[in-house]
Structure of Fibrinogen C-terminal domain-containing protein:
Amino acid sequence: MNKLNDKLDSVVRTVLEEYKWHRSIFTECSNTNAKLYDKLDTFTSHIIAVTKDLKALFSGNTSYVTKTQLQLHNISEALAKAVVHLSEADEKQTNVILQQMKFIDTYSGIYFVNPTPSLNNSFEVYRDGSSNFGFGGNWTLFQRRFDGSVDFNRSWAEYRDGFGDLDGEHWLGLEKLKRLLDTERHELLVVLEDFDGVIAHARYDKFMIGNEAEGFKLKSLGKYSGSAGDTQSCVPNKIKTTVWDISTCQDGNLLPIEVRVDPN
């Protein structure tokens, strides 16, 4: 009987120990599950929040796209109107520019010109935009004499390069004159005045000279018109030969005060 009781006690103790062990395992699992559920709840909350954010972002982007499309539409309409206004303004501006160009054409003064852009070598000229002496405006002066302030008894190099003051008496220079004449056909106008102030002129419609190697020789004058007499003596001798002398035309009292060129 005692042995049976001992075995029974042993079995009870074993069952109790296993129960305690399973209970501890169950408790641990319960705690773990609780933690997992907590984490799951947190994760679910995050998912819900992110979903809301995504919906809000999508809704915001849709509004942004719609707003942008509206802005682009408004810009397109504004550009279309601007094109119309620009066309109208362009026509007005063109008229203004044309009027300004007419004014510029009547302005006498010193201008920069570059007849041969490939040389990248511009130079100054005096352009008479007035209708002095009744010959119209926009002539380029390459000889101007009116008060004797400049000595025209100069060397060949000076006649080639030019001398004097463009605002006063001057000789532009044969090299520069040649560059001007090479661009297109030019007229030549020689304005002369006698001691009594009587003005005469000689005008030629096709003025051409040679280069420096040719001594800037006169090659063409073209058709003559004017009141000074149809004679080449009205043309400065420096162009005809290589020796400068004041020309006198047919009337020995007529001296050239201005020699001009202009495209025709």
